[in-house]
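Human:
Focus on the backbone:
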Amino acid sequence: MSLSAPLRIALALAVMISAAAWSQSKAVSETRPPKPAPKPKLTPEQQRGLRLLKASEGEAAGLDPAMRAFVLWQVSNGYAKLLPEKSRSAMHQALAASEGVEESPPEGCEWDVCHLKLYLQRRMVEELVEHDRDSGNYDDVEKMLPQLDEKLRDETTAMLVMGYASKNQFPKALNLLNAIGDDSDYPFEAAEELMVYDSRPEDRLAVFDQAMAHQPRVLGPGGDDVATMVIRFARDLPSAAVLAAIDEILSQAKDEDEGEKMRLGVVAGEKSVYFNSRCQLRLFQLLPTLEDLDKAKAESLLRDNAEVSHALDQYPRGPQSMDPKSYGDSPLPEGEFGNSYVDVLNSKDPSGAAQEQAHDQEIAQVEAKVYKVMGEAENDPAQAYADAQEVPLKTSYSGEWYSPRARALQWVVDRSVKKDPEMARKAMKDLQKLVPDMEIAQQARTLPTITNFYVDVGDKEEARNNVKEMMKLADKLYARDTDSSDPNLLFKGVWPSTALWRRCVQSAAKISPEFAEEIIAQVPDPDIQVFERVNYGATLAGADRFRGAAVEWHKNGKHAGMF
């Protein structure tokens, strides 16, 4: 049946109107922002944790500035995973509170925690930078730079340069470096990191020239300066600029040696070479590059320096031969790192310098064994376990806070508990056997690892028993912290007893709420109880472990450690 002309026209119009309406509807739907993803439903434990954090945030208003800043810092940590914006707000409140902290460091104390205001602000800013690392948007922290203490401003600038560099935001990193004043401590390590990520020759040259203009110190802590830039990036820099830098560095080293010579060297794991002057060290660093550019001059300098010549026979490319990872010109793969540094000995007499050198070499050799275990633990737990047996239990440098073998075994346990549970249990049994022979402070570092292992594998009874042992240790540490004849002179928030009770509460909360509340009730100090209630809320909210210090400082000496 054929349709009449009017009906065909009517149908055509209907189709056109329908198509237009669909097209318009589609356009609107495409421009309308997508609905936000539904928020995940909170567990009862998380809800309770957030209530505790909110209550602590309110109570903080009545505390003195140091207590208020510390509590709000912990609250910020507690909010971090579930309420990131509230976390940032609490951190800013904590920073504001820290402005009222009065600095009163104990006499002779140079640890960072001894300068409480700077310590609090440094750690808080570090965490703000860490929070922004994934996004690479550090605008919030950048705005804070003018208000920060000069030292902290320099440190934060370095962190931001490295953060921007790792996200390939090179203009922002360069702008921060360009804004550094003549009186500021130039961040050579951060500038090198930028040169590693930004391989464009023009940018590398700009950073190199800027570093040369900020070269009042020739040899900084760890050895990062223009010399290490020459080692790593000479092939991407104009030869004339590199040769001028080498001349300047050697000239400055010679001038400094005329004032005072010193014993110093390059250490890379178990490898080390030492020299009797800054000039010799600089020649070891720079002669391989100089030989590439001016062979005659390099040979002339080498003829007059037998000690340097011998070191280069052993390591032909100088520090690069000792540790290619530290001196490469491209980013390291995830999880890999270099381990070399410049070791400046303090002793002026030869015998003292020799003893100090032997001490530093022992540290390097033992730590190289620990790093080896750390590198193996992820992919080869059995080999890591075997190598952990070769790590010394104690050394002349480890003191009461540190056992290299315990650290190595802890690493095996942490990295193999899911991949190779039997190997993890084997390493854990070895670790438990070490505890009775440890100093009290080392026990305090080790028992939380043991407790967390049994929590993770579901053995709550063994975990509960370990928490009780931790509580006994915390009581002993508190007795040291409050010793009337020689108390810990630092802020309570960084006392070792506070830190260990924190670990007790974190473990107890994973066993049962009643057990956690029982633990908090047993803390004898009201101020520390305040900290532990915040810690409990943060644990229920699923926060990462709070990274506070655990430090002692007494009139009759100091003991310091982190756990």
In short: Residues 132-208 form one domain. The first strand starts at residue 264 and ends at 268. The beta strands are 264-268, 271-275, 340-344, 550-554, 557-561. Residues 45 and 540 are 5 Å apart (CA to CA).
